[in-house]
């Protein structure tokens, strides 16, 4: 399935999502690796099989195997970290935020691609998972590495549109059941 086929599966009430996916596919503020990696990491974070399969197929010839693996790793590690750090941030007892996480996160230090790209994908996944602490941390890293606010916003916009497509398809599946 291609991105166009995914867009075609979205019902008319989600026309804005369809249009946003199309325009974000042509986003030029990010490198191709940053853009397609953000799409893939966001698809995995969306947890919708149709979205994951469509975007994985669409990005397959656009990302090196190393970049595709790193985008998947960003979704995986942030799936864990976003839960942990969001919880420690939201809890009234601040003792937990001061404790070491004691969770393995080695992939963050050695993602197999340019660190700024991995951090940008981690930021996109953190937006989907709603972890403000992780959003702040990854935004600081990519900005320090030279990315602009427009580039950060582009990754968040990709995450938002991909997640919305997944939510629409999940809703449609529930209505059809």
TrEMBL record:
It catalyses: N(6)-[(R)-dihydrolipoyl]-L-lysyl-[lipoyl-carrier protein] + a hydroperoxide = N(6)-[(R)-lipoyl]-L-lysyl-[lipoyl-carrier protein] + an alcohol + H2O. Residues 95-175 form the Carboxymuconolactone decarboxylase-like domain. GO terms for biological process: cell redox homeostasis; response to oxidative stress. Keywords: Antioxidant, Disulfide bond, Oxidoreductase, Peroxidase, Redox-active center. Disulfide bonds join 131-134. Its EC number is 1.11.1.28. One of its GO terms (molecular function) is disulfide oxidoreductase activity. Antioxidant protein with alkyl hydroperoxidase activity. Required for the reduction of the AhpC active site cysteine residues and for the regeneration of the AhpC enzyme activity. PANTHER family: ALKYL HYDROPEROXIDE REDUCTASE AHPD. HAMAP family: AhpD. This is Alkyl hydroperoxide reductase AhpD. The lineage of its organism: Bacteria, Pseudomonadati, Pseudomonadota, Alphaproteobacteria, Parvularculales. The gene is ahpD.
């Amino acid at each position: 399935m291609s991105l166009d086929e995914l867009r075609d599966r979205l019902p008319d009430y989600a026309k804005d999502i369809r249009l946003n996916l199309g325009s974000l596919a042509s986003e030029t503020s990010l490198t191709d690796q940053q853009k397609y990696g953000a799409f893939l990491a966001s698809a995995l974070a969306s947890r919708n099989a149709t979205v994951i399969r469509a975007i994985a197929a669409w990005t397959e010839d656009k990302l090196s195997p190393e970049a595709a693996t790193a985008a998947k790793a960003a979704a995986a590690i942030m799936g864990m970290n976003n839960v942990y750090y969001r919880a420690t941030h939201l809890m009234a007892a601040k003792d937990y935020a001061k404790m070491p996480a004691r969770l393995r996160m080695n992939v963050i230090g050695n993602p197999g691609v340019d660190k700024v790209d991995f951090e940008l994908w981690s930021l996109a996944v953190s937006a989907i998972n709603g972890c403000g602490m992780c959003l702040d941390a990854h935004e600081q890293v990519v900005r320090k590495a030279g990315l602009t606010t427009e580039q950060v916003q582009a990754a968040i916009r990709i995450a938002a549109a991909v997640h919305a497509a997944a939510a629409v398809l999940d809703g449609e599946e529930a209505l059809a059941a």
